Structure to design on (257 residues):
């Protein structure tokens, strides 16, 4: 698994490298840290299936988790991506034990894992952590709404650029590990069609795509080629979750040391 070094054990008073712990009062932070476990997540790993009772919530550090809606015939399409700006498992604190989506690791790395019961208990306490969770839930809903519109009205080329840019925003570098099959699952298309779309971006000099590894070569070019959906989602995420970028910068600085 290609990823950064594992985050060290969190010390008392230290904030985990995830934006949802930003601004949390010291007393609550100490309780939260005691309930977190840092775990590796592998590419393609399924964290939970649609309708499955969730035992844990996940707070990504340097990985990305894709939320997919799966049809009865097994076909799927991505409805949202989650990285260091958020968490996987919002249904737990919103009154449900399960959700209609599947959660799959889109890019390998590490995440903090918290038992479902602990998350619910801390949410009921209120305070800063609860507000952060609710604000993130709003940004996730906004992303899902924009993704639904994008999938209906924009070309595959535009959707792929949007997806790549949103992924890059959540990674410590310009490198993604992704198979044709996983790209196809994200976009709801066959794997060969996903590979052809990625190859077209490579021909345009925007990315380098080789053996399941995508490297962004021209981010500005990807932004020009994408539809307005990427900018709309990013604008709302930055507005509602201002610590997200600071969290990413802090992570990148730590990874460079």
């Amino acid at each position: 698994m290609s990823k950064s070094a594992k985050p060290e054990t969190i010390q008392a008073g230290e904030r985990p490298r995830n934006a949802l712990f930003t601004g949390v009062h010291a007393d609550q932070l100490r309780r939260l840290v005691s309930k977190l476990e840092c775990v590796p997540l592998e590419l393609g790993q399924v964290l939970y299936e649609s309708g499955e009772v969730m035992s844990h919530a996940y707070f990504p550090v340097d990985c990305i988790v894709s939320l997919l809606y799966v049809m009865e015939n097994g076909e799927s399409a991505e409805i949202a991506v989650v990285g260091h700006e958020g968490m996987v498992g919002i249904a737990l604190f919103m009154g449900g034990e399960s959700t209609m989506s599947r959660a799959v690791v889109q890019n390998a790395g590490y995440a903090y894992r918290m038992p479902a019961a602990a998350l619910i208990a801390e949410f009921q306490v209120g305070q800063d952590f609860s507000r952060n969770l609710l604000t993130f839930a709003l940004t996730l809903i906004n992303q899902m709404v924009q993704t639904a519109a994008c999938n209906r009205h924009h070309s595959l080329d535009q959707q792929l650029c949007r997806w790549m840019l949103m992924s890059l925003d959540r990674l410590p570098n310009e490198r993604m590990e992704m198979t044709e099959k996983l790209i196809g699952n994200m976009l709801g298309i066959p794997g060969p069609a996903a590979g052809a779309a990625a190859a077209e971006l490579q021909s345009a000099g925007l990315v380098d795509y080789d053996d399941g590894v995508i490297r962004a070569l021209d981010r500005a070019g990807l932004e020009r080629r994408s539809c307005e959906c990427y900018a709309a989602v990013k604008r709302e995420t930055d507005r509602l979750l201002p610590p997200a970028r600071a969290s990413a910068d802090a992570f990148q600085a730590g990874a460079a040391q």
User: Anything to note?
Assistant: Residues 244-257 have pLDDT under 50 and may be disordered.
